[in-house]
Design goal:
Layout (H helix, E strand, L loop, with lengths): L2 H13 E4 L5 H11 L5 E5 H17 L4 E7 L3 H13 L4 E5 L4 H13 L5 E5 L7 H6 L6 H14 L4 E3 L5 H8 L4 E4 L18 H7 L3 E4 L1 H4 L4 H17 L6
Length: about 250
């Protein structure tokens, strides 16, 4: 393989996040150790964090993994500020929070992440992909989901956050709104030919990168594969193809 091909593969690895959605912390630890070397980050979500607590993060860190802590924080600014400090002290690389927590919550969170040394990157969730226009109406939002997502994306940008979580199908529009500097992180990734499961707005790894995603979150296509390492390697190869595609073709 050419050194350009190798560096594109390494670049792909850094951008792939594996969602450690396992029932037990023990299994998450074992699978994290096996699959960790093939991905840039391991995602610890609410369920695993509630079961395994900060210890699961410490254990995975000790195994050499970078951690994406997906807790989607949404609370008063003071509480989120302190939670951000705790995540930074655990050595987490990415932490999610709801942009709808408002400007002060976002600004305090970002200021705290910087005060803690700047290694923690905050990613804002805009509108959950599980909410439709009717749901938004019922919780008192007037805007349609797309307009609301763009509004919240700008709020996160103004607060100086590192990036956003959005579906691969929104990436082009969100990118046009926030510009090139924010990291866009997309779940709902399905390798070509794989099972879609309950995800509705899916994209394959290549299309997600070509649309402008920076980080891809993948769970079940790796977790449920007969050979998870082979599945991760297949995704990396698809990603490498996109990373080697000259910009003009994208
Ligand atoms: O298994 P799958 O690849 O669908 O997992 C994707 C991960 O991304 C899960 O941990 C899920 O909670 C998360 N996620 C998602 N859709 C969103 C936001 C987050 O699937 N809109």
């Amino acid at each position: 393989m050419s050194s350009q091909g190798e560096s594109a593969l390494e670049e792909a690895r850094k951008r792939l996040i594996f969602a450690l959605d396992y029932d037990s912390p023990g299994e998450a630890e074992t699978r994290g150790r096996e699959i960790g070397p093939y991905v840039g980050c391991l995602k610890v979500g609410l369920e695993l964090f509630i079961r395994g607590g900060p210890q699961i993060v410490r254990t995975l860190r000790a195994q050499g993994a970078q951690i994406f802590l997906d807790l989607k924080l949404h609370d008063i600014a003071e509480t989120v500020d302190r939670a951000v400090a705790s995540a930074a002290q655990l050595g987490v690389t990415y932490l999610t929070l709801h942009a709808s927590g408002g400007p002060r919550m976002l600004e305090r969170a970002q200021a705290r992440a910087e005060k803690e040394g700047g290694h923690l990157k905050l990613l804002a969730v805009t509108v959950l992909t599980s909410l439709d226009a009717q749901d938004l109406e019922r919780i008192g939002y007037r805007a349609d989901p797309r307009a609301q997502a763009e509004r919240l994306a700008l709020l996160a940008k103004e607060a100086g956050l590192a990036g956003l979580v959005c579906s691969a199908q929104e990436v082009r529009e969100i990118r046009a709104v926030v510009g090139p500097s924010m990291l866009l992180c997309t779940p709902g990734i399905r390798p070509t030919g794989s099972d879609v499961g309950d995800q509705k707005r899916v994209a394959n790894p290549r299309d997600a990168l070509l649309a402008g995603s920076d980080l891809l979150v993948v769970g079940r296509p790796i977790r449920d594969a007969a050979d998870p390492i082979q599945a991760a390697q297949g995704i990396l190869r698809e990603m490498r193809g996109a990373l080697e595609t000259p910009r003009a073709e994208a």
